[in-house]
Amino acid sequence: MSTHAQRERLFLADLLESAGPDAPTLCAGWRARDLAAHVVVRERRADAAAGIVLKPLAARLERVQAEFAAKPYEELIQLIRTGPPRLSPYALKQVDEAANTVEFYVHAEDVRRAQPDWAPREVDPVFADALWARLERAARVLGRRSPVGLVLRRPDGRTAVARRGAPVVTVTGEPGELTLFAFGRQAAARVELDGEKDAVAEVEGAELGI
pTM for the complete prediction? Predict the structure, then answer.
């Protein structure tokens, strides 16, 4: 049975292929080729991927990612489609689902929403709930750098506190949009922000996310 992560993986690969290697993305300084290389390195080179969260290893990550970005673009797309090697932790269905569902969703939107003609994507209710469940668990981590209190709110009223504090800004939107907002794609997320004017401006410019 297909999982959310598997479906998003194939969707991301298709988007990258259609966009072409030089297409812009929402990731600052990255073209589609760079984003594809990042996805491949994250799954296939754990020795380098640690640099995503460990700053002392960031230079190594940058070097390895540049090496992968130099590969034929079609090869990178195929590596994304086929997934990690058999001995990788990501090859386990449970790990793939836990670690890649949001990762691939966000990066797919990084490709889609960097194009001038993008339109909001319809997310089915089951997938929306899956995104929300992950957002609830990660909200405090994603919102830790917010300069003010931050609450994420679904249209049905369910909320997740991303940062305690005052004043408070409440961000309302569908789970997919809230996910993008919390991962630092504030300008591209279709959400409504409520709060003091200065606090809203601070949240809009904050460095949210991992």
Answer: 0.92
| Residue bearing the bigger pLDDT, 180 or 28 | 180
Look-up of token digits 């380098």 = 48
The residue type at 10:
L
**Exposed, middle or buried by CB within 10 Å (0-12, 13-18, 19+), for 204?**
middle
Could you read off the pLDDT of 24-83 as tens digits, one per residue? 999 989 999 999 999 998 888 777 666 566 677 677 778 888 888 999 999 999 999 998
Q: Would you list the DSSP string of the chain? A: ---HHHHHHHHHHHHHHHH-TT-B-SSTT-BHHHHHHHHHHHHH-HHHHGGGT-GGGHHHHHHHHHHHHTS-HHHHHHHHHH-S-TTSGGGSHHHHHHHHHHHHHHHHHHHHTTSTT--PPP--HHHHHHHHHHHHHHHHHHTTT-SSEEEEE-TTS-EEEEE--SSEEEEE--HHHHHHHHTT-GGG---EEES-HHHHHHHHTS----
Give 78-133 pLDDT, tens digit per residue. Answer: 999 998 888 888 888 899 899 999 999 999 999 999 999 899 899 999 999 999 99
Q: In what order do the strands lie in the sheet with 159-163?
A: 159-163, 149-153, 168-172, 192-194
